[in-house]
Amino acid sequence: MKYIEYVNEQIRNTVKDPENLVLFGQNINAGSCLGGLTKGLSVNPTSKIINSTNSENSLCGFGFGLMLNGVSSVFFMKQLDFLLLGIGIYVSLLIFYTFETLFFTGLIYIFLIPISYFHYKHKNKASLITNNEEETEDVL
What's phi and psi for 22, nearest 5 deg? Predict the structure, then answer.
């Protein structure tokens, strides 16, 4: 059993029974199912699976809205480096409204954008190394 298959099995077993659970993300129940990570998901009739667009900022906001309304949810995301930027917007708004200054908000982006960039560069190097090897396996 590949690692991705094991993780997929654990996810399927965890999400099949809870009531009022919302699973969302791009192609989580269609197409590639995030490289097999979300393949074969089924949920309780009171729960939902939402195949969404690829807009991390909107999806983070959707998740925060669900959380604020007491709805259990899981956001499945393919490119985790964009999660930092998606969450950064909400953290910066919290800081802005708490301290009423844009200074701290700007500092967040000064740190998050380079982190996202270096993560992207490292991911591409790892991808090139993996693609050059004789045997490859699905990578999360």
Answer: -115, 120
